[in-house]
Amino acid sequence: MAQTQKQSHYSDPPASVENVQRTLSVLVDNEPGVLARVIGLFSGRGYNIDSLTVTETEHEKHLSRITVMTRGTPATIDQIKHQLERMVPVHRVVDLTLLGEPLERELALIKVAGKGNDRIEALRLAEIFKCNVIDASTEHFIFELTGRSSKIEQFIAIMTGLGLVEVSRTGIAAIGRGKQGI
Q1: Burial 137-176 (b: 16+ CB within 10 A, else e)
Q2: What is the tens place of the pLDDT at every residue in 68-91?
Q3: 137-160 confidence digits (pLDDT tens)
Q4: Please, what are the domains in the chain?
């Protein structure tokens, strides 16, 4: 039986150009429809979003900060930034990755069910990873874990063999190092 390849409407980048992951911080007006317009820019052009968080950060000025983690060639990332900068409700676009290694954190809630040795092992490992137990019964735990995405991925992978039931993640929050703000 012949294998069928996944077809895409978008051309693949040349093999010599490497994709990079970037964390963008976008300062926007906090008004209805802004998030939809920003996300529409990504989806309309076939750009992928690895992580997305948004919240109002300056209440008096009614400004929100959107943190987007995306991948693409350096030229694609530049194109994304330029297109975002041209949008009316966007005040500033900063590539936190270019400023140096940004501080990134994510929150995850992880439900693990089990009994006996698996339950004891899950609790022991959660302590090593500095998880908080936020709900528990004789048959399950819900752990709260905050840290880099790689730490959360590692914990989830370990819990898979110990009774992982469900995971809820916030996406990353990121900020540049040093005294300068965006």
Answers
A1: eeebbbbebebebebbeebbebbeebbbeebebebbbbbb
A2: 999 999 999 999 999 999 998 999
A3: 999 999 999 999 999 999 999 999
A4: 20-95 (3.30.70.260), 103-174 (3.30.70.1150)
